[in-house]
Specification:
556 residues; alpha/beta; Rossmann fold; 3 domains; globular; P-loop_NTPase; ATP binding
């Protein structure tokens, strides 16, 4: 590793993009300071750093969404100035955002063509070009399928194809593996190798350092808004890279003994949800009747099918599954934003099936949502108002029937301090924070009310290794004090490392149990796609697994 900034290369024929001395200031904060980044043609260049280190700002500058206060941008050796993303696209810079920019109600072809109709038309010419790009880079997209019918990995390939369709020769990929299972990650990396072989360049932003080291040709590390060095993947370990990001040694994790008790906190029996209908964000749902989405046999499709489980005090139960297999519907039913069509939910022995969301929250159900932008934050509201969300009737946000802004503000400052939320103050909007800092604010908010049951959906998505470890420690600490946790995550290492019991969901059913002490991420990933593995106990859906949540489970 090199602990100093890399000097600009001089052979411009080998350089795709060069950023030199980039500085960007916002009121109260310097987001980027004298950053240098040189991306070689035909390579994958990883950009890593903590949340709030300045990665997103730097990429917005390269993509024309922000203008630097100082510094220069060169593309293929020619200095350029971007006033908008259109300028960047015209010079061959394309960006695939972490939150996909696709219209669900349009086909793949319509999404790709939208806004670029002048390139190849909207008919045969566009279809021919899409097929050519898809075949050339092994993207395997289907132009006539509605985007809403695609899985997350297919949507990502559509986003990549969309920027290639517009002539991109340098692609910015922001957290591209955040929601992919191992097999999908392997397929993505195969796609990136195809891009490299054709001379294209990729800027790869990720917090998954093992993946960074496996796919990158070069790595640049930024910390607190400035370049602190480069790393050669073949000569670096994930731990060394993480310590370079945070500027200090990381603590060695300790093995914790089991905290699972025999006191049931959540008991779910026969939970079933049909496709279509339902409610959103606290609106009561009507049961789905005949005539809704049907399967080939004429029956109404079940997106959650006779799900039964129990979570005890002091237990983390992980749910592993490819997105779209019923996890969202399970969360909605548990938090009360959608009524189940049959089945019951008991919380501390009391049937809460008919309870609205607010009553569940006030009774001790915490919720870290899977989509922080749509479900967890008011992006244009200040941080202290976001601290109130979901807890409007509870102290310190309320005094009696009245809101208590001063109490909420004081507690927001505490959360910012304890959870290391990088922000110039509590009056800035949630939209001004990086994704990882937004996530830390949400986790701090939910853990501050000492929940008895926590629904944690992708709790560390988009956060750096230091913040991830901190969030894991918070969950483990609360678990020792009796918290019951339902953990849903696309990070298989997180599922295996945090869970006391681990179950696989497939096509709306809980189909198998895994032992977190012995299962590997590869085996778990195979099970999530429906493949069999010898380290799983397959169960009939609706039946309690023999080893489920047992207090005497082996200490891990």
């Amino acid at each position: 590793m090199d602990a100093t900034s890399s000097p600009p290369l001089t052979d411009h024929s080998t350089i795709a993009v060069e950023l030199a001395g980039i500085t960007k200031r916002f009121p109260g904060v310097v987001a980027n300071h004298d950053i240098h980044l040189t991306v070689r043609k035909g390579t994958v260049h990883a950009l890593v750093g903590e949340n709030g280190a300045g990665k997103s700002t730097l990429m917005k500058i390269l993509y024309g969404m922000q203008k630097p206060d100082e510094g220069t941008i060169a593309v293929a050796g020619a200095q350029v100035t971007f006033g908008s993303p259109a300028d960047a696209i015209a010079r061959g810079i394309g960006m695939v955002h972490q939150h996909f920019m696709l219209a669900d109600n349009l086909t793949v072809l319509e999404n790709v063509v939208l806004g670029s109709e002048k390139l190849y038309g909207i008919g045969g010419g566009a279809r021919k070009k899409i097929k050519e790009i898809s075949d050339r880079y092994g993207l395997n997209v289907r132009p006539d399928v509605l985007v809403e019918d695609l899985g997350v990995a297919e949507r990502q390939r559509v986003e990549i194809l969309k920027v290639l369709y517009r002539g991109a020769s340098t692609l910015i990929l922001d957290e591209p593996t955040a929601v992919l299972v191992p097999q999908e990650v392997d397929a993505l990396f195969d796609n990136l190798r195809e891009l490299k072989s054709e001379g294209l360049s990729v800027i790869f932003i990720s917090h998954k350092l093992g993946e960074v080291l496996s796919v990158a040709d070069d790595i640049t590390v930024i910390r607190r808004g400035t370049t602190v060095g480069t790393a050669v993947p073949s000569e670096t370990t994930p731990r060394q890279l993480a310590e370079m990001m945070v500027g200090s040694e990381l603590p060695t994790p300790e093995t914790a003994e089991s905290t699972v008790t025999d006191r049931a906190v959540i008991e779910v029996k026969g939970l079933t949800v049909y496709a279509s209908g339902g409610a959103s964000m606290g609106v009561e749902a009507e049961p789905v009747g005949p005539g809704s989405l049907v399967e080939a046999g004429g029956e109404v499709k079940k997106v959650l099918d006779d799900v039964t489980f129990t979570i005890h005090a002091g237990e983390v139960m992980g749910i592993a599954g490819v997105e779209g297999n019923g996890q969202t519907e399970l969360i909605d039913a548990l938090i009360g934003t959608k009524n189940a069509d049959s089945g019951t939910i008991a919380f501390l022995g009391e049937d809460i099936t008919p309870w609205p969301t607010r009553k569940r929250r006030e009774s001790g159900v915490g919720y870290i949502p899977e989509d922080r932008h749509r479900q967890g934050l008011l992006l244009e509201a200040p941080l202290w108002e976001n601290r109130i969300l979901g807890h409007v009737t509870e102290a310190p946000n309320a005094k009696g029937v009245w809101l208590n802004p001063k109490g909420a503000q004081a507690d927001t400052r505490r959360i910012v301090e304890e959870y290391d939320v990088r922000t110039p103050g509590i009056d800035v909007t949630a939209a001004s924070l990086s994704g990882g800092n937004q996530q830390k604010l949400i986790v701090g908010r939910e853990m501050s009310h000492s929940p008895k049951f926590l629904i944690a959906a992708h709790p560390t998505r988009g956060v750096d290794v230091g913040a991830q470890a901190q969030i894991w420690d918070r969950i483990r600490e609360a678990r020792r004090e009796g918290l019951a946790v339902l953990l849903i995550s696309a990070d298989l290492d997180e599922l295996i490392g945090l869970s006391d019991t681990l179950r696989v969901i497939y096509d709306g059913k809980l189909v198998a149990d895994a032992n977190p002490a012995t299962i590997t991420p590869e085996e778990l990933g195979s099970a999530m796609t429906g493949a069999a593995t010898g380290h799983l106990e397959h169960v009939e859906n609706g039946e309690e697994a023999a080893a489920e949540s047992a207090p005497e489970d082996e200490a891990r």
